[in-house]
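Researcher: Structure for this, please.
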Amino acid sequence: MTEEKNISEIDKKVVRALQGEFPLVAEPYKELAARCGISEKLFLERVEVLREEKKIRKMGAVLRHREIGFTSNVLVAWEVPMSRLDEIARKMAASPVVSHCYDRNTALGWSYNLYTMIHGHSREECERLAEELAAETGIKNRTMLYTKKEWKKTSMRYFCENEEGLA
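Model: Predicted structure, token format:
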């Protein structure tokens, strides 16, 4: 069992506020802070502390790629020599065509250990982008797993004790 890191009730409120819809107003952090019942200054201080303590890793937009025309999505599983895994993973993760990049253990009959997600306007575009990644990295052995149906388009939510996501 892993040791649970302590997180204060204020920090839980901050996390709840950050994982919801971001307010499209002139002072969004002021509005998020008000939802938490704290000042904007304290809200931003708590965000920075949570980041420094590695309790939150990042904040970012979730792009609904289908709504803007990216209709072809492929998970590319790559076979990368273990001696080059970190190097290749860094290169692929830095590529603007890759939205996700992670490594996984191999299994009997499945030698792929690095996975990238590519979004395109067509299968042909995805194929071309994967081929460009292969050329840039020298990693040729891959399999392309195309999305058939999208089942979920929400992020994980933490510290939500009721349906509205408020405590």
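Researcher: Any notable elements?
Model: The beta strands are 72-78, 98-103, 114-120, 142-146. DSSP finds five helices and four strands in the chain.
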